[in-house]
Each structure stands twice: as structure tokens, then as C-alpha cells.
Write a structure and sequence with these properties.
Blueprint lengths: L5 H6 L6 H6 L17 E4 L6 E6 L7 E6 L11 E3 L6 E3 L3 E7 L3 H4 L3 E7 L4 H5 L18 H20 L3
Antiparallel strand pairs: 1-2, 2-3, 4-5, 6-7
């Protein structure tokens, strides 16, 4: 992923207001992000921990950003392990969280959302590349796909999620 400016990021959001985009806080480590290892930029707002953001490069050149809601509580006793819908990384239950994205346009303003179970730290790109490992290993068998196939799958899964958020009624 090519580095993005603060202005590019704030202008990219399709499911939140310009005011919300203006008020969001960028990741604390924004200046040190490993851009070349990222397929998308994802973070929890350091000033509003129930808000998360994903900014994905697009073939058109302009990134597309989504505002997401983080649940206020988690019940980690329900599952012993969980798998991220984006990168298919297996985590202990606390390593995956349900994120809800308001739909773009009028449907989102009316409260309609779509959700995905995603790595709680939104570091899918780093998990796919082996630069980060889940805190607690699960009993799931390790995957032996080549890196390019894992990255392609991550892109497909992100595109599917974006399509659900942005599709017209």
C-alpha cells in the first residue's frame, strides 16, 4: 500500500459524515506505519475506542474508507477460538471482534449495518505476512498457502465487505 496523507484518509470515508471524518484520530503510530506491508490501513480510534476505521486502496487510485463500530462489551466465554473474516487468521476468542459498518447513504443514516468478525487489532496484513502472530495459538492447523494467495484472499474478502457496505439498495 502506498502511504496516505491525513487529508486523503479523511476524504476517503463513504459511510460517515465529513464532520465525523474530521474529528477522527489517526493511529498513534501513524508516522511509523509499515506501509509496504499493509493491504489496508485499519485502526481503533485512540480517542474513541468504540470507533474503528478501515481505509482500502482502490484501482481508481483514490482510497475508500469505512467507519466501523466496535462492540462496547465482548463475551469471550462464548467461543474458545475465532477466525477473522478478512485474513482467515485463527485467534483466541479475544483476538477477533465483531465490527459493524453503517451502510453508505440513506440506509446507513436509517441505522442499517453490516458486520464482520475481524482481527481485533485490524492487523490482518501483518498476520498474513507472518510479521505478527496471534497472542494465543489455537489448535487449528497452520495454513500453508503461498503468500500471494493469502494476500489475494485478503483482498477478495475486503472487496466483498466493501461491496456489502456500498451497494445501492
Amino acid at each position: 500500500m502506498e502511504p496516505l496523507s491525513d487529508q486523503q484518509i479523511r476524504a476517503s470515508f463513504v459511510n460517515c459524515t465529513k464532520g465525523e471524518a474530521k474529528r477522527l484520530r489517526l493511529p498513534l503510530d501513524f508516522a511509523e506505519l509499515p506501509w509496504s506491508d499493509l493491504d489496508y490501513l485499519g485502526w481503533i480510534d485512540p480517542g474513541a475506542p468504540l470507533r474503528a476505521y478501515v481505509v482500502v486502496p482502490q484501482p481508481t487510485g483514490d482510497p475508500l474508507g469505512l467507519g466501523l463500530r466496535v462492540p462496547s462489551t465482548r463475551n469471550s466465554s462464548v467461543f474458545k477460538s475465532s477466525i477473522c473474516d478478512f485474513c482467515i487468521t485463527s485467534h483466541a476468542s479475544s483476538g477477533v471482534t465483531l465490527l459493524a459498518a453503517p451502510l453508505a447513504g440513506a440506509r446507513g443514516r436509517e441505522g442499517s449495518t453490516v458486520g464482520a468478525y475481524v482481527c481485533a487489532d485490524l492487523a490482518c496484513s501483518l498476520y498474513v505476512r507472518g510479521k505478527r502472530t496471534p497472542k494465543l495459538r489455537t489448535l487449528r492447523t497452520e495454513e500453508h498457502l503461498p503468500l500471494d494467495e493469502k494476500v489475494a484472499r485478503l483482498h477478495r474478502n475486503l472487496t466483498t465487505f466493501i461491496t456489502k457496505v456500498t451497494a445501492p439498495a
